[in-house]
Structure to design on (257 residues):
């Protein structure tokens, strides 16, 4: 009697599939891997609560809210910053220590949009430094020669940068610089005093501006704590000629740390 042949042909045992029949395992393994990745993402997202979630939310709010504030439409008197043309704004200064700083690239874009004519004329220069964003104003925009009293035409430019400073948590240094020409008036003993007085008067303008826009008590204290002033006189010129008018400037350094 002839023997029956085994199913699957010679060399294959019954019940064992060929290599081609196992290809479904590759698809199955890929699907399991993808599902595992989805579950890991879901678990990590569910743990993003409390301070971490709040910090991310605040960072996004700062980045987007900086473009919502409209500029001032009216000028103000000396040392009484602000005006009636401001839109109401939400508090962004409370809890400032817990908030990340706004990237200087965003701040620079906002400032350029608010003062395009002065930048085009070379009276305002913006520059990225190792410390942050440097906004340099020629002193003639704010002061008469040898004086630390703000000119009325300076208020609009100061209001615009004040709007930006109030919407971000970054620390700020206001620097006064002069040329090497000797002081002619009896109001100041040297260019050091003149440059320091100018920087201090601009600081006072920014603080008064914040008061006008609703900063009170603890919120105002935290805002004030972000500022510092410095007067360098003629000792940090940007032109080799120490008597050059280019050396007379006010720098607002917005730190990125």
């Amino acid at each position: 009697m002839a023997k029956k042949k085994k199913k699957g042909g010679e060399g294959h045992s019954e019940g064992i599939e060929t290599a081609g029949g196992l290809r479904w395992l590759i698809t199955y393994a890929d699907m399991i891997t993808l599902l595992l990745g989805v579950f890991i993402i879901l678990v990590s997202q569910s743990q993003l609560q409390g301070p971490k979630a709040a910090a991310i939310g605040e960072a996004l709010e700062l980045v987007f809210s900086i473009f919502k504030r409209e500029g001032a439409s009216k000028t103000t008197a000396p040392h009484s910053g602000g005006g009636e043309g401001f839109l109401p704004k939400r508090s962004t200064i409370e809890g400032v220590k817990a908030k990340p700083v706004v990237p200087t690239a965003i701040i620079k874009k906002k400032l350029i949009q608010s003062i395009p004519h002065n930048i085009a004329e070379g009276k305002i220069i913006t520059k990225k430094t190792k410390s942050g964003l440097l906004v340099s104003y020629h002193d003639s925009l704010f002061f008469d020669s040898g004086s630390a009293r703000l000119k009325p035409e300076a208020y609009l430019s100061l209001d615009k940068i004040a709007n930006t400073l109030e919407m971000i948590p970054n620390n700020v240094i206001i620097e006064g610089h002069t040329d090497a020409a000797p002081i002619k008036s009896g109001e100041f003993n040297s260019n050091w005093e003149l440059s320091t007085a100018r920087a201090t008067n601009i600081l006072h303008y920014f603080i008064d501006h914040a008061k006008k826009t609703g900063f009170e008590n603890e919120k105002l204290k935290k805002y004030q704590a972000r500022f510092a002033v410095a007067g360098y006189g003629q000792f940090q010129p940007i032109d080799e000629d120490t008597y050059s008018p280019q050396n007379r400037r006010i720098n607002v350094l917005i730190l990125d740390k």
Q: What stands out?
A: The longest helix spans residues 24-46. The two ends are 94 Å apart (CA to CA). The chain has a mean pLDDT of 78. The CA atoms of residues 147 and 194 lie 7 Å apart.
